[in-house]
Amino acid sequence: MISLRIDDTPVQAQPGQTILDAAREAGIRIPTLCHLEALCPVGACRLCLVEIRNWNGRLVPACATPAQEGLDVVAHSDRLAEVRRTVLELLFAERNHICAFCVSNGHCELQDLATELGMDHVSFPYRFPALRVDVSHAKYGLDHNRCVLCGRCVRACADVEGAFTWGFAGRGVHTLVEADLGEPWGTSRTCTGCGKCVQACPTGALFEKGKATAEQEKRPEVLAEITERRPRA
Known about the structure:
Helix content is about 25%, strand content about 15%. The chain is α+β, with helices and mostly antiparallel strands. It has two domains: about 1-75, Ubiquitin-like (UB roll) (Roll), CATH 3.10.20; about 125-230, Alpha-Beta Plaits. Strand 1 (about 1-5) and strand 2 (about 10-15) form a beta hairpin. It is found in: Membrane.
C-alpha cells in the first residue's frame, strides 16, 4: 500500500491508483469534468488540479498523477478555488453555454460545477465563435457551440465501443470534435449508433434528437457498468 496525505488526512492507495482515486476512496471530493470512470485519464480540463506541498506547491491534475509514497496533497484551498473558478470562467467565455436554451439545462455537469465552485460571473470577454450544429445523424445531434473539448466522447467511442469514430480537428478556439476526419456524423462509416458518446458528454453538446430544453438526462455511469461486466484477460 502507498501512504500519502490529502488535506492533512492520512490516505492509503493501491499501486497504480491516481491521487483522484485515493481521494475518492477516502471520501474527499475533488471536482472533475474530463474524467470519467472506465475511460483513460487525460487531465484535459484542469479542474481537478491539486497542490503538492512537498513539490514546492506545484499544481498537478489529480486524475492523471499517480499516488506516490509520502505525498502531501492539498485538494481544497483558496488558491485552488480561485484556479478552478478561473478555468470554469474560461470555458463559459469560449463558447455559448447559455443554459436557459440548452437541452441539458438542470442535468449538466458544467452547470453543476459552476454552482459548486461559486462561479457567479465571467471575468473574460466572450468569444462565442459561430460554430455549426450537426444533426445529420438519424438519432443524435452535435452542437459544437456547447462542447468543452473534454474528450469524453472520443474516449468512450474508442475505449468502450471500439469504433474510433470521434477525433479532434483544428487548433485553439477552432478545435472541434469531428466524426471520421470531418465527415457529417450521419454519413459516418464507423459509427455504430450506440449512443455511448452522448451518455459520456457532460454538457448539451451531444444530445438525443427530440429532446427539448432541460429534457436531456444522461447516464455516464453506464460506461463503467459495461466495462465491469466484460471478461478480464
